[in-house]
Amino acid sequence: MIHTLAIALACAAFLMLALSMKRHQRDLVGRTVPEARARLARIAGWLLIALCWALEGWMLGPALGTIVWIGEVSMGAWLAIAIINWRADRPAR
Amino acid sequence: MAARLLAAIPANYLLTSLATATLARLLWRGLGVDPANASVAAMLASFVMFSVLALVAFGVRSALKLWLWMIGSGAVLGAGLWLSLTSGGRL
Amino acid sequence: MKDSLRQSMALFHTWSGLLLGWLLFAMFATGTAAYFQDEITRWMQPEVTGSADPEASAQGAVRYLNKVAPDAISWYITLPNGRSATTQVYWQPGDGTRGKRGETSAVLDQAGRAITVRETSGGFFLYRFHFDLHYMPVLWARYLVGIAAMFMLTAILSGIVTHKKIFADFFMLRFGKGQRSWLDAHNVTAVIALPFHLMITFTGLVTLASMYMPWGIAANYASPSVFQEQVFGREPAAERSGRAQPLVDLAPLMRAASAGWGGKQVGYISVTNPGDATARVLFTRSPGAAIAARGETAAFAGATGKDLAAHTASGAALATESVMIGLHTGRFAQWGLRWLYFLSGIGGTVMVGSGLVLWTVKRRARLPDPARPHFGFRLVERLNIAAIPGLATGIAVYFLANRLLPADLAQRPDREIDSLFLAWLAVGLWGMVRPAGRAWTETLALAGACFAAVPVVNALTTSRGFAASITNGDWLFIAFDLVMIALAACFLHAAGKVAQHRAKKAAAPLRRTSRKAVSQ
């Protein structure tokens, strides 16, 4: 359960990071995002990744928590890339 | 290319082995770490050293300089190891 | 200069990857399966059900060994845990001979009765193949595997050095987009699981470090056995006194040992000089109870139950080594993390496999005459077929053989292993004689079909088919079937993709070349 939540958080974090980069904004939300918002998204993305680590560290202890966190962040990245791929495909249709 | 390959693999292994042995001696005899931990610490470090050296062997501009540098450090490490082994024995 | 550095690194990455890629692929694939080695063994012994209590199992094992090997030099007992339900015992006969396999070992149930299950090497074989290979001396195999791992480590580092751009282009990675798709598959799997790849390769080297880099130990110790004594506390066994004295009940001792480790369970027991006044019992902590691989130990006098101060090696470097080995083997991992390990391992397998295919894809475009490639190209292409669908088919056939070979076949475990390699060899030969494109489709489809057959054959030959597993809530068997079906789907999908690609290529060879000319 906790894994699912953490992977979802990590995925959201990567989507935020993608949203903060100019060349992905059109794919994700269909328009460009103002610089201030982009910066906010970048901060939110990193914060979410840190939050995941804090969550696992708190639940499982620093050693095991860090290991689990790395695995979950990788899975979150997979999901995020899949979502970006899916969104990037849509306008073509 | 052949000179680099030789440097990156067999010569690298020799040099890394020398460095590992010397480091193990240094940690134990020089810095007072217990011999088991000194040996294992040197062993763990050796893999980092080998892979970095392999990359350096392909990355540096001059193969000649690379070889001179490797032979030089090998001689220094070998001398240090020999001195250390003659001054105090092994368990 | 920058460019030449990049170039030489790229060259190094390509060729070292190609030379050792086939071996690395097999290591990754079987190593990934080995994260579930206990579960695979349970699947391969469908007669064993339920779970067992460690304390009762220890007592049962002692009863069995007292009957079968009362005068042994030593007993070794591997207790059941959350993942396995059987006790494995092994003994060193008193006359000093090394008995044949099966004569000095047994698989027991909780009550200490030898269970007559179909004999199999189970998941253990896949685990051992991962670093010992097969049909060759173990020593050679381990050196080969070590060389491959070292190359992998340098290939990863050179990849990071040369392709820093990959991180900036992280979100540009695309699935299944024409010509770039192989490159992207390689990159996606490499970049996303980079921490895993680095960790698994480095810690893999550490597991066999004293073989690959013995000079650190040799510098301080004239003989490696002195080092081992210091670290593992292996004391030479005391002479038997000849005064018979029965072994005390192990259950209270287990509880005492466990209490000394903050409640972590006992995983292994060894007893030297059982039944003698000099008997010594050594408990080792269960590998599932903590990350570090080298478990804590506790020693007791076997005749009196007196606590003997156990030797425990300590120190930062030893602890680091132990944690690294633990991280590699993942024995500490609970279900969620174990699946993450498994998925990361699949990612690594795909990374190596796609890298191998990439080598041919990149060069095919540059061939002077694509219809008749030169020998080296053909060789790589054929070896790729042998390595990727070949090994996959072999593993599926290994599972099928477990269900289909007669239960009382002589040397059954070896026959199961032989069928894996026969299937692998057959696919390899098939790839040699067929046209390469067609061979890819056929062998991928064959691998898919073999994986798809596993749940079917399981349902037909045991009472633990998919439907029965669902009604019984037998999660291990459900998950095994589902993984087989998922693998089958992936291989069949890949076979379909290759067939589609070939059909397109055959239909429009002209259009393809002209478009490529434009894009370049």
UniProtKB/TrEMBL annotation, chain A:
Q: Where are the transmembrane segments?
A: 6-22, 43-61, 67-86
Record keywords, A-Z: Membrane, Transmembrane, Transmembrane helix
* Pfam families to which the protein is assigned, alphabetical: DUF3325
According to UniProt, the name of this protein is DUF3325 domain-containing protein
Q: Which organism is it from?
A: Novosphingobium barchaimii LL02
TrEMBL record, chain C:
The answer to whether keyword Transmembrane helix applies is yes
- For this entry, the protein name equals Peptidase
Keyword terms: Membrane, Transmembrane, Transmembrane helix
Q: Which residues cross the membrane?
A: 140-161, 182-206, 339-361, 382-401, 421-437, 444-463, 475-495
Superkingdom as given in the UniProt entry: Bacteria
